[in-house]
Design goal:
By secondary structure, this protein is α/β, with parallel strands linked by helices. The protein folds into 2 domains: 239 residues, Spore Coat Polysaccharide Biosynthesis Protein SpsA, Chain A (Alpha-Beta Complex); 131 residues. It is built from 15 helices and 7 strands. Strands 3-2-1-4-6-5-7 form a 7-stranded mixed sheet, sandwiched between helices. β2, α4 and β3 form a beta-alpha-beta unit. α12 packs across α13. The protein binds guanosine-5'-diphosphate-alpha-D-mannose and manganese (II) ion. Guanosine-5'-diphosphate-alpha-D-mannose binds next to β1, β2 and α5.
Length: 400
């Protein structure tokens, strides 16, 4: 790779393009693409590329692979070392990115330019043993798996001489991921995996390029993939140093929460809840104002007015926002409003019923309002009533 090319403002795909074009012209699409994200891996990249090529050459994939190094303009010039190898070996190419940064986005860049039927992602520091690559490819190529994960916690796998603090991070990360995402994968934080082109292409448009863990995105987005695993021993870093730090861990947790929220709570339900809160606000305001201006003897009137205002505002907002695609117009609006009232009444009954079951004696007469309102049974009853109402409204009132 020449100096001129490497000073380009956006990432330099020149040598990658050239190599791939030759590859494609010569042999068509390769079976296997190996994507290696690098940042300051000058101590490791040559050894890794040598070991990996020897390994793949010895396997049945033989000539039928490409290796794509995605480097974020490393100050130690990893890209130059990889570029020299790429010049001698048409199966190796280098993507040098000048403006984009980050592990996950580097992996995505690599995946987007790869052309193999099976796409493998691995680290450059030899913590990921090249000898495992063929075992990762096989289940995806022949076994009908969408993804094959190199796992440190399944049969034969281990963390090697991983610092205890890192083991703990990994353990926590795995548990949280399994809990929130319900994935079958035993090592969802793994950076070493293979994915089929078909599955990659279905998920690619909805992947979030930020964050550290691209595997999580594959596991949690779209349809549930068929996951295979291969146990492996997480090796020691050959040279250089790790880039995993605290902010990466926080990012990981944030990604988990976003992914699971998106899975557990459909977007419509989140909007439904927000609209519901607005309705509660309207109701509280109308009630206060009513009690202030009305005669004390008509307090009940104020409450009815307040509840009714809340319901109407809720209905109108749901009609315009939450269930907009199924919006009622004209005379249907009236029918919708009636239906919405019936469903709300049902919600009230559910709430009262659950409360009666959970707290049969009712609140202590002296108990203050706030304590009663935010009691566990009250919140649980509210949640059940809300979820029920949501489903009935979606199915009946708006017939989604
Ligand atoms: N292009 C690019 N850009 N590559 C990066 C970047 C970046 O910003 N950050 C890291 N890399 C590359 C490294 O050069 C290395 O090849 C690979 O990504 C992994 O980075 P490490 O810094 O070695 O990560 P680690 O060993 O601490 O973390 C390993 O274990 C984690 C789970 O415990 C990795 O395998 C992670 O993927 C894994 O989640
Ligand atoms: Mn590493």
């Amino acid at each position: 790779m020449s100096e001129t090319q490497s000073r380009r403002s956006d990432y330099d795909r020149t040598s990658a393009d050239r190599n791939r074009d030759e590859t494609l012209a010569g042999r068509g699409r390769p079976t296997v693409s190996v994507i290696i994200p690098t940042f300051n891996e000058a101590d490791n990249i040559e050894v890794l590329l040598d070991q990996l090529r020897i390994r793949l050459d010895a396997d049945r994939y033989g000539d039928d692979y490409e290796i794509i190094v995605v480097d974020d303009d490393s100050p130690d010039e990893t890209w130059r070392l990889a570029g020299t190898i790429a010049e001698q070996d048409g199966r190796v190419s280098v993507v040098r990115r000048a403006s984009d940064r980050g592990l996950a986005s580097a992996v995505l860049t690599g995946l987007s330019v790869a052309s193999g039927s099976v796409l493998v992602v691995m680290d450059a520091d030899l913590q990921h043993d090249p000898a495992v690559v063929p075992r990762l490819v096989a289940p995806v190529l022949d076994g009908g798996s969408d993804i094959c994960v190199a796992s440190r916690t399944s049969g034969g796998g281990s963390f090697g001489r991983f610092a205890r603090s890192r083991k703990l991070i990994s353990f926590t990360g795995n548990s949280v991921a399994q809990l929130l995402l319900g994935t079958q994968c035993t090592d969802p934080m793994s950076g070493f995996f293979a994915v089929s082109r078909t599955y990659y292409e279905t998920v690619a448009p909805i992947i979030n390029p930020r964050g550290f863990k691209i595997l999580l995105e594959f596991l949690a987005r779209g349809k549930r993939p068929q996951v295979a695993e291969v146990g492996y021993r997480f090796g020691e870093r050959l040279g250089g140093e790790t880039k995993l730090n605290r902010s990466v861990v926080l990012n990981y947790l944030a990604a988990l929460i976003t992914l699971s929220a998106g899975r557990i709570l459909p977007a419509t339900f989140v909007i439904y809840l927000a609209v519901g809160l607005v309705g509660l606000g309207v109701r509280a305001v109308v009630e206060q104002v009513g009690l202030m201006i009305l005669d004390p003897s008509s307090a009940a009137m104020a409450v009815v007015l307040a509840v009714e205002s809340g319901l109407i505002v809720n209905y109108l907002l749901h009609n315009r926002i939450t269930f907009e695609p199924f919006r009622h117009r004209g005379v249907h609006t009236l029918r919708g409003l009636v239906s919405f009232h019936v469903v709300s009444l049902h919600g009230l009954l559910v709430h009262a019923g659950v409360m009666a079951m959970l707290a049969p004696s009712g609140p202590e007469p002296s108990a203050d309002l706030v304590a009663t309102t935010f009691s566990g049974p009250f919140i649980l009853a509210g949640a059940l009533a809300t979820i029920g109402n949501y489903h009935i409204n979606a199915g009946t009132t708006w017939q989604t």
